[in-house]
Amino acid sequence: MTDALQPPSLPVLVTGAAGKLGRDLVPSLVAMGWRLRLTDIAPFPDPLPPGCEFIAADLNDRDAIVNLAQGCASIVHLGGLVEYGTFETVLGPNLRGVYHVFEAALAHGLRVVYASSNHVIGFHERETVLDKESTYRPDSFYGLSKVFGEMVARFYWDRNGVESVSLRIGSCFPEPKQERMLATWLSRGDMARLVAHSVTAPSTGFAVVWGASNNAASWWRGDDRARIGWTPQDSADAYAGTFPPAGQGVADRFQGGGFCEVGYTRND
Ligand code: NAI
Ligand code: 15L
Predict the structure, then answer these.
(1) Can you give the pLDDT of all 268 residues of the chain as single tens digits?
(2) Tell me, what CATH number does 43's domain have?
(3) Is 114 part of the annotated catalytic residue set?
(4) In a domain, 5, yes or no
(5) Which ligand 2 atom is at minimum distance from the Cα of 257?
(6) Is 81 strand, coil or helix?
(7) Strand, coil or helix: 120
C-alpha cells in the first residue's frame, strides 16, 4: 500500500538508480505520480518508465552532479560502493560522491535523502538497544564512508541550512534472508514510503531515521521518523523460526553481521 502524498512539482534526482534499490524504487515512485531524473555510472537496465529520464554520470565528477540537480525538487542519493571496501575503493564513489551531492544541494537549495547504512553502528553488540544519538561504531570501510556521509549532512545543515534525511537502512531485500534480518529487514514497500515521506515532509532539518520495518527483534529505537510522518507497515516477524538460530561467532555477536568478520583480529 502506498501513502497518498502529493508528488513534488519538479523531478526528483535519484543517484545510483541502476542499482538494486534504485530499480525497485523507481517504479514505486512513478506509481505515486513522481517525475524522476535518474543517474548512475552504469546504464539503467530497465525500460524507462513514463516521467523518467536517465543521464549517466560518475559521482566523482563534481560539475556533472551539480548540473544534474538543476531544476530538481530534491536528491535521493543511493549511489556508491556497497561492499566492505578499502579506503581507496570508498574514497571516490562514497566520500567524494556524497560531498558532490551536498554541493549540488547547496547550489540549488535542495534537500538530500541519503542512503546511509546500519554499518555506521555495526560494531555495537546485538544486546545493545540504540537510538539515533548512540555512538558511531562503523564495522567496515563502507561503514566509515557512511559515517562521513552523515557528518557531511550534519555540516551542511549547521553551516548552510541544507536539509537532509539520513536513512540508516538495515537490510532492504524482497524478503529476510537470515536470522539477523529478523531485526534489520526493511521491506521494499517500507523503503519506498520512507523515501517518499523524506522528500515530501514540509521540513526535516538534519534528520536520521532507522530504515527497518516494524520488526519485534529490532535493536533500533529513537529517531526522527515523526518529523517526516513515516511509520513502517511491514514486518519480518512472520519469518521468525524459519532460519537457523544465531551462533557464537563475530557475525552473530555484532549488529553489522558478516561485515564485522572481515579483518577482525581481536581474540575477545
Ligand atoms: P547497488 O550496489 O545495487 O547500487 C549502487 C549503485 O551505485 C550501482 O548502480 C552503481 O553503479 C552506482 N555507483 C557506484 N559507483 C558509482 C559512481 N562512481 N558514480 C555513479 N554511480 C555509482 O546497491 P543498493 O543495494 O541498491 O543500495 C543503494 C544504496 O542504499 C547504497 O548507497 C547502499 O549503501 C544503501 N544501503 C543499501 C542497503 C540494502 O540492504 N540494499 C542497506 C543499507 C544501505
Ligand atoms: C548494507 O549496507 C548493504 O548495502 C547491504 O548489501 C546489506 O549488506 C545490508 O547493509 C545489511 O546489513 O544487511
Answers:
(1) 667 899 999 999 999 999 999 999 999 999 999 999 999 999 999 999 999 999 999 999 999 999 999 999 999 999 999 999 999 999 999 999 999 999 999 999 999 999 999 999 999 999 999 999 999 999 999 999 999 999 999 999 999 999 999 999 999 999 999 999 999 999 999 999 999 999 999 999 999 999 999 999 999 999 999 999 999 999 999 999 999 999 999 999 999 999 999 999 999 8
(2) 3.40.50.720
(3) no
(4) no
(5) 12
(6) coil
(7) helix
Mutating to test ligand 1, I would choose from 20, 94, 121, 145 the residue with most ligand atoms within 8 A of its C-beta, which is: 20
**Ligand 2 environment, Cβ below 6 A:** 82, 117-119, 171, 184, 257
| Burial category of 114 from C-beta neighbours within 10 Å (exposed 0-12, middle 13-18, buried 19 and up) | buried
CA separation (Å) from 257 to 150, 210, 235, 250? Answer: 21, 17, 20, 7
What's the number of domains the chain is made of?
1
First to last CA, the chain: 46
Residue 268 placed within a domain: no
Residue 203 burial class via C-beta count within 10 angstroms: exposed 0-12, middle 13-18, buried 19 and up: exposed
Give a yes or no: residue 160 inside a domain.
yes
**248 CA to middle of ligand 1, Å?**
30
Question: Which residue in 142, 156, 239, 264 is the catalytic one?
Answer: 142
- 255: domain range? 12-261
- The sheet carrying 206-211 orders its strands as 52-54, 36-38, 12-15, 74-77, 111-117, 164-169, 206-211
Q: Does the C-beta of 20 come closer than 6 Å to ligand 1?
A: yes
Q: Say if 101 falls within a structural domain.
A: yes
Ligand 2 centroid vs 83 CA: distance in angstroms? 8
Ligand nearest to the CA of 44: 1
